[in-house]
Automatic annotation (TrEMBL):
PANTHER family: 6,7-DIMETHYL-8-RIBITYLLUMAZINE SYNTHASE, 6,7-DIMETHYL-8-RIBITYLLUMAZINE SYNTHASE DMRL SYNTHASE LUMAZINE SYNTHASE. It catalyses: (2S)-2-hydroxy-3-oxobutyl phosphate + 5-amino-6-(D-ribitylamino)uracil = 6,7-dimethyl-8-(1-D-ribityl)lumazine + phosphate + 2 H2O + H(+). One of its GO terms (biological process) is riboflavin biosynthetic process. Coiled coil: none annotated. CDD domains: Lumazine_synthase-I. This is 6,7-dimethyl-8-ribityllumazine synthase. InterPro entries: LS, LS/RS, LS/RS_sf. Belongs to the DMRL synthase family. Pathway: Cofactor biosynthesis; riboflavin biosynthesis; riboflavin from 2-hydroxy-3-oxobutyl phosphate and 5-amino-6-(D-ribitylamino)uracil: step 1/2. One of its GO terms (molecular function) is 6,7-dimethyl-8-ribityllumazine synthase activity. (2S)-2-hydroxy-3-oxobutyl phosphate binds at E85, T86, R127. 5-amino-6-(D-ribitylamino)uracil binds at F22, A56, L57, E58, A80, I81, I82, N113. The gene is ribH.
Length: 161
């Protein structure tokens, strides 16, 4: 049996982050925590690119452009969608989440989705630290894993020739 162990060494990884500015206080705090954790995992500050967008619905299109550049090993989506009094919350939460997933699958790139969906500001504030740090860990671990799997796939193709 082959077991691939998690690799949390971000030394050679290039990470792109897209932060939604709507609920900017929360998103900015998440961005700070996430970048701190990425650096702790060895990702060089020069290998971190941050783009901001107005809100969660705009996150997928910028992720798609980052993914299509082939300059990143993993991406991170950051923001907060807080329930209001209308159906708009469900629309934004569902569409942004689906868009993030489509980009990941279409471009074969790991995307840590750290867009919070909460009932109120208090819940969002309570989740800033854990969700942002988790996003950094997911990006590094999955970036390394996909890179490994792709390198093994290309090695197998070379062996077949």
């Amino acid at each position: 049996m082959n077991i691939i162990e998690p690799n949390l060494n971000g030394t050679h990884l290039r990470i792109g982050i897209v932060q939604a500015r709507f609920s900017n206080e929360i998103g900015s705090a998440m961005l700070k925590v996430c970048i701190g954790k990425l650096k702790e995992l060895g990702v060089d500050a020069d290998n971190i690119t941050v783009a901001t967008v107005p809100g969660a619905l705009e996150v997928p299109i910028v992720l798609q452009n980052l993914a299509s550049s082939d300059k990143f090993d993993a991406l991170i989506a950051i923001g907060a969608i807080i329930r209001g009094e209308t159906y708009h919350f469900e629309l934004v939460a569902n569409e942004s989440g689906a868009g993030v997933s489509r980009v990941a699958m279409s471009y074969n790139i790991p995307i840590a989705n750290a867009i919070l969906t909460t009932e109120n500001d208090e819940q969002a504030h309570a989740r800033i630290e854990e969700k942002a740090a988790d996003a950094a860990v997911v990006a590094v671990e999955c970036g390394n894993l996909v890179n490994l799997l792709l390198s093994e796939q290309f090695e197998e193709e070379d062996d077949d020739e």
